[in-house]
Write a structure and sequence with these properties.
alpha+beta; single chain; elongated
Protein backbone atom coordinates (compact mmCIF):
# COMPACT_ATOMS: atom_id res chain seq x y z
CA UNK A 1 0.00 0.00 0.00
CA UNK A 2 1.28 3.44 -0.89
CA UNK A 3 1.14 5.23 2.48
CA UNK A 4 1.55 8.82 1.27
CA UNK A 5 -1.60 9.07 -0.95
CA UNK A 6 -3.60 7.22 1.70
CA UNK A 7 -2.49 9.59 4.46
CA UNK A 8 -3.31 12.56 2.25
CA UNK A 9 -6.73 11.14 1.43
CA UNK A 10 -7.59 10.49 5.07
CA UNK A 11 -6.54 14.02 6.02
CA UNK A 12 -8.55 15.62 3.21
CA UNK A 13 -11.61 13.59 4.18
CA UNK A 14 -11.54 15.18 7.64
CA UNK A 15 -11.77 18.61 5.97
CA UNK A 16 -14.89 17.60 4.02
CA UNK A 17 -13.31 16.82 0.66
CA UNK A 18 -14.64 13.56 -0.88
CA UNK A 19 -11.54 11.75 -2.17
CA UNK A 20 -10.54 8.87 -4.42
CA UNK A 21 -7.21 7.39 -5.57
CA UNK A 22 -5.85 7.93 -9.07
CA UNK A 23 -3.66 5.47 -10.95
CA UNK A 24 -0.88 6.19 -13.44
CA UNK A 25 -1.99 8.68 -16.04
CA UNK A 26 -4.03 10.61 -13.44
CA UNK A 27 -7.03 8.41 -14.24
CA UNK A 28 -9.52 6.77 -11.84
CA UNK A 29 -9.49 3.03 -11.37
CA UNK A 30 -11.73 1.06 -13.69
CA UNK A 31 -14.88 -0.65 -12.52
CA UNK A 32 -14.69 -4.14 -11.10
CA UNK A 33 -16.23 -7.05 -13.01
CA UNK A 34 -19.52 -6.75 -11.16
CA UNK A 35 -19.80 -3.07 -12.10
CA UNK A 36 -18.53 -3.29 -15.68
CA UNK A 37 -20.84 -1.53 -18.09
CA UNK A 38 -22.77 -0.15 -15.10
CA UNK A 39 -24.47 -3.52 -14.75
CA UNK A 40 -24.82 -2.78 -11.03
CA UNK A 41 -26.93 0.33 -11.63
CA UNK A 42 -24.23 2.89 -10.95
CA UNK A 43 -23.93 5.38 -8.11
CA UNK A 44 -26.18 8.31 -8.97
CA UNK A 45 -25.94 9.93 -5.54
CA UNK A 46 -22.21 10.58 -5.91
CA UNK A 47 -21.40 8.49 -2.85
CA UNK A 48 -21.08 4.77 -2.19
CA UNK A 49 -24.83 4.39 -1.67
CA UNK A 50 -27.53 3.81 -4.25
CA UNK A 51 -28.07 0.81 -6.51
CA UNK A 52 -24.40 -0.21 -6.49
CA UNK A 53 -23.31 -2.09 -3.37
CA UNK A 54 -19.76 -2.69 -4.54
CA UNK A 55 -17.29 -1.81 -1.77
CA UNK A 56 -14.49 -1.12 -4.25
CA UNK A 57 -13.22 2.04 -5.96
CA UNK A 58 -15.74 1.98 -8.81
CA UNK A 59 -17.55 4.57 -10.96
CA UNK A 60 -14.75 7.14 -11.07
CA UNK A 61 -15.82 10.45 -9.45
CA UNK A 62 -18.85 8.75 -7.88
CA UNK A 63 -16.53 6.67 -5.68
CA UNK A 64 -15.28 9.78 -3.88
CA UNK A 65 -16.07 9.67 -0.17
CA UNK A 66 -15.23 11.31 3.14
CA UNK A 67 -15.80 8.08 5.11
CA UNK A 68 -12.43 7.02 6.62
CA UNK A 69 -13.65 3.45 7.09
CA UNK A 70 -14.25 3.17 3.33
CA UNK A 71 -11.03 4.95 2.37
CA UNK A 72 -8.90 2.66 4.57
CA UNK A 73 -10.96 -0.48 3.91
CA UNK A 74 -9.50 -3.73 2.50
CA UNK A 75 -11.66 -3.20 -0.60
CA UNK A 76 -9.68 -0.03 -1.43
CA UNK A 77 -6.29 -1.44 -0.40
CA UNK A 78 -5.40 -2.70 -3.87
CA UNK A 79 -6.10 0.71 -5.38
CA UNK A 80 -3.95 2.48 -2.81
CA UNK A 81 -1.05 0.12 -3.55
CA UNK A 82 -1.12 1.31 -7.18
CA UNK A 83 -2.18 4.91 -6.54
CA UNK A 84 0.07 7.71 -7.71
CA UNK A 85 -1.95 10.63 -6.34
CA UNK A 86 -5.26 11.67 -4.77
CA UNK A 87 -8.24 13.31 -6.42
CA UNK A 88 -11.35 14.90 -5.00
CA UNK A 89 -14.88 15.59 -6.21
CA UNK A 90 -15.26 19.40 -6.14
CA UNK A 91 -19.03 19.53 -6.67
CA UNK A 92 -19.77 17.27 -3.70
CA UNK A 93 -17.67 19.61 -1.54
CA UNK A 94 -19.53 22.67 -2.83
CA UNK A 95 -16.58 23.84 -4.95
CA UNK A 96 -15.85 24.66 -8.58
CA UNK A 97 -12.36 24.40 -10.07
CA UNK A 98 -11.50 26.43 -13.16
CA UNK A 99 -8.67 24.37 -14.66
CA UNK A 100 -6.38 26.71 -16.61
CA UNK A 101 -4.07 24.52 -18.66
CA UNK A 102 -1.54 27.01 -20.03
CA UNK A 103 -0.07 30.46 -19.53
CA UNK A 104 -2.46 32.11 -21.99
CA UNK A 105 -5.46 30.75 -20.10
CA UNK A 106 -4.01 31.98 -16.80
CA UNK A 107 -3.47 35.44 -18.28
CA UNK A 108 -7.07 35.46 -19.48
CA UNK A 109 -8.35 34.52 -16.00
CA UNK A 110 -6.29 37.21 -14.32
CA UNK A 111 -7.89 39.89 -16.48
CA UNK A 112 -11.41 38.43 -16.55
CA UNK A 113 -12.31 36.49 -13.39
CA UNK A 114 -12.54 37.59 -9.74
CA UNK A 115 -9.47 36.80 -7.66
CA UNK A 116 -9.80 33.59 -5.65
CA UNK A 117 -7.69 30.76 -4.22
CA UNK A 118 -5.21 29.49 -6.80
CA UNK A 119 -3.22 26.28 -6.96
CA UNK A 120 -0.22 25.88 -9.26
CA UNK A 121 -0.35 22.93 -11.69
CA UNK A 122 2.27 21.49 -14.00
CA UNK A 123 1.30 23.78 -16.89
CA UNK A 124 -1.06 26.36 -15.41
CA UNK A 125 -3.29 26.95 -12.39
CA UNK A 126 -6.49 25.81 -10.69
CA UNK A 127 -8.77 28.68 -9.64
CA UNK A 128 -11.08 27.44 -6.90
CA UNK A 129 -14.43 29.06 -6.09
CA UNK A 130 -17.04 28.35 -3.42
CA UNK A 131 -20.21 27.01 -5.05
CA UNK A 132 -21.02 24.07 -7.31
CA UNK A 133 -22.15 24.03 -10.94
CA UNK A 134 -22.20 21.72 -13.94
CA UNK A 135 -18.81 20.58 -15.19
CA UNK A 136 -17.80 21.37 -18.75
CA UNK A 137 -14.61 20.82 -20.71
CA UNK A 138 -13.06 23.18 -23.25
CA UNK A 139 -15.30 26.11 -22.34
CA UNK A 140 -12.62 28.27 -23.95
CA UNK A 141 -9.03 27.59 -25.11
CA UNK A 142 -7.11 25.81 -22.37
CA UNK A 143 -9.94 26.05 -19.84
CA UNK A 144 -12.06 23.32 -18.23
CA UNK A 145 -14.59 23.55 -15.42
CA UNK A 146 -14.52 20.78 -12.80
CA UNK A 147 -17.37 20.65 -10.29
CA UNK A 148 -20.35 18.27 -10.28
CA UNK A 149 -19.84 14.79 -11.75
CA UNK A 150 -16.11 15.37 -12.13
CA UNK A 151 -12.85 15.00 -10.26
CA UNK A 152 -9.60 16.92 -10.04
CA UNK A 153 -6.20 16.19 -8.58
CA UNK A 154 -5.27 17.42 -5.12
CA UNK A 155 -2.21 19.61 -5.61
CA UNK A 156 -2.18 21.43 -2.31
CA UNK A 157 -4.13 24.18 -0.56
CA UNK A 158 -2.89 26.95 -2.84
CA UNK A 159 -2.84 30.63 -2.06
CA UNK A 160 -5.48 33.23 -1.33
CA UNK A 161 -9.06 33.13 -0.08
CA UNK A 162 -11.82 31.16 -1.78
CA UNK A 163 -14.23 33.59 -3.43
CA UNK A 164 -17.90 32.89 -4.19
CA UNK A 165 -18.57 31.35 -7.59
CA UNK A 166 -19.10 34.33 -9.93
CA UNK A 167 -21.62 34.59 -12.78
CA UNK A 168 -18.70 34.90 -15.20
CA UNK A 169 -17.69 31.31 -14.49
CA UNK A 170 -21.24 29.97 -14.68
CA UNK A 171 -21.65 31.71 -18.03
CA UNK A 172 -18.67 29.81 -19.44
CA UNK A 173 -20.63 26.55 -19.30
CA UNK A 174 -23.65 27.95 -21.17
CA UNK A 175 -23.37 26.92 -24.78
CA UNK A 176 -25.32 28.59 -27.54
CA UNK A 177 -27.96 26.26 -29.01
CA UNK A 178 -26.75 24.49 -32.13
CA UNK A 179 -28.77 24.82 -35.34
CA UNK A 180 -31.85 22.62 -35.17
CA UNK A 181 -32.34 19.83 -37.65
CA UNK A 182 -35.14 17.40 -38.15
CA UNK A 183 -37.96 19.80 -37.26
CA UNK A 184 -41.32 18.33 -38.28
CA UNK A 185 -43.01 19.59 -41.41
CA UNK A 186 -46.28 21.59 -41.17
CA UNK A 187 -49.21 19.87 -39.54
CA UNK A 188 -51.65 20.18 -42.40
CA UNK A 189 -54.28 18.10 -40.64
CA UNK A 190 -57.70 19.72 -41.24
CA UNK A 191 -60.79 19.12 -39.18
CA UNK A 192 -62.70 16.10 -40.35
CA UNK A 193 -66.35 15.98 -41.31
CA UNK A 194 -66.45 19.31 -43.15
CA UNK A 195 -66.78 21.39 -39.98
CA UNK A 196 -66.00 24.64 -41.73
CA UNK A 197 -63.21 27.19 -41.41
CA UNK A 198 -60.60 26.78 -38.70
CA UNK A 199 -61.57 28.81 -35.61
CA UNK A 200 -57.90 29.63 -34.87
CA UNK A 201 -56.94 31.37 -38.09
CA UNK A 202 -56.57 34.68 -36.29
CA UNK A 203 -52.81 35.44 -36.44
CA UNK A 204 -52.97 37.21 -33.07
CA UNK A 205 -54.59 34.21 -31.37
CA UNK A 206 -52.04 31.77 -32.73
CA UNK A 207 -49.09 34.07 -32.01
CA UNK A 208 -50.22 34.57 -28.42
CA UNK A 209 -50.53 30.81 -27.95
CA UNK A 210 -47.06 30.07 -29.34
CA UNK A 211 -45.51 32.88 -27.30
CA UNK A 212 -47.10 31.58 -24.11
CA UNK A 213 -45.86 28.08 -24.92
CA UNK A 214 -42.31 29.38 -25.40
CA UNK A 215 -42.52 31.20 -22.07
CA UNK A 216 -43.78 28.09 -20.31
CA UNK A 217 -40.80 26.09 -21.57
CA UNK A 218 -38.28 28.85 -20.86
CA UNK A 219 -39.61 29.31 -17.32
CA UNK A 220 -39.35 25.63 -16.35
CA UNK A 221 -36.91 25.39 -13.43
CA UNK A 222 -36.92 21.61 -13.08
CA UNK A 223 -38.44 18.63 -14.84
CA UNK A 224 -37.74 20.33 -18.17
CA UNK A 225 -38.50 17.27 -20.30
CA UNK A 226 -41.90 16.84 -18.63
CA UNK A 227 -42.62 20.55 -19.03
CA UNK A 228 -41.74 20.37 -22.73
CA UNK A 229 -44.03 17.40 -23.24
CA UNK A 230 -46.94 19.05 -21.41
CA UNK A 231 -46.47 22.22 -23.43
CA UNK A 232 -46.37 20.33 -26.72
CA UNK A 233 -49.51 18.49 -25.63
CA UNK A 234 -51.30 21.75 -24.85
CA UNK A 235 -50.35 23.32 -28.19
CA UNK A 236 -51.40 20.27 -30.17
CA UNK A 237 -54.69 19.92 -28.29
CA UNK A 238 -55.60 23.45 -29.39
CA UNK A 239 -54.03 23.69 -32.83
CA UNK A 240 -53.08 20.17 -33.88
CA UNK A 241 -56.20 19.28 -35.84
CA UNK A 242 -56.92 22.53 -37.63
CA UNK A 243 -53.87 23.07 -39.81
CA UNK A 244 -52.74 26.24 -38.02
CA UNK A 245 -49.26 25.05 -37.08
CA UNK A 246 -46.42 25.41 -39.54
CA UNK A 247 -42.80 24.34 -39.34
CA UNK A 248 -41.98 27.90 -38.22
CA UNK A 249 -44.20 27.53 -35.14
CA UNK A 250 -42.89 24.07 -34.36
CA UNK A 251 -39.34 25.31 -34.84
CA UNK A 252 -39.92 28.04 -32.27
CA UNK A 253 -41.10 25.47 -29.72
CA UNK A 254 -38.16 23.20 -30.44
CA UNK A 255 -35.73 26.12 -30.17
CA UNK A 256 -37.14 27.10 -26.75
CA UNK A 257 -36.77 23.52 -25.54
CA UNK A 258 -33.29 23.22 -27.03
CA UNK A 259 -32.20 26.38 -25.21
CA UNK A 260 -33.21 24.66 -21.93
CA UNK A 261 -30.92 21.74 -22.72
CA UNK A 262 -33.27 19.38 -24.55
CA UNK A 263 -31.73 17.57 -27.50
CA UNK A 264 -33.44 17.52 -30.88
CA UNK A 265 -34.09 13.80 -30.38
CA UNK A 266 -35.84 14.44 -27.04
CA UNK A 267 -37.88 17.22 -28.63
CA UNK A 268 -38.88 14.94 -31.48
CA UNK A 269 -39.81 12.16 -29.07
CA UNK A 270 -41.90 14.50 -26.93
CA UNK A 271 -43.65 15.89 -30.01
CA UNK A 272 -44.34 12.41 -31.41
CA UNK A 273 -45.65 11.18 -28.04
CA UNK A 274 -47.96 14.18 -27.73
CA UNK A 275 -49.29 13.62 -31.24
CA UNK A 276 -49.82 9.93 -30.56
CA UNK A 277 -51.71 10.63 -27.34
CA UNK A 278 -54.04 13.07 -29.12
CA UNK A 279 -54.29 11.05 -32.30
CA UNK A 280 -53.18 13.90 -34.59
Amino acid sequence: MNPEPLRTALHLATTGLPVLPLRAGKAPFGNCRACAGNACGGRPNMVSSGPCRCPGVCHAWAAATTDPDVIASPAWAGAWRRAVCVAYHPGAAGLTVVDLDNAAAVDWARTTLPTTRTVATTRGEHWIYSGAMQSSNAVRPGTDIKSRMSYTRWLGKGEGFTAPLPPAVRALAVKAPSPLRGIPRPLAVPLTGGQGACPHRSPAYLERGITMAEQRITGASEGVHAAVYRTFLAVLSTHGRCGCLTDVHVGRLFAAAHAKGESVRHCSDAWANARARLGV
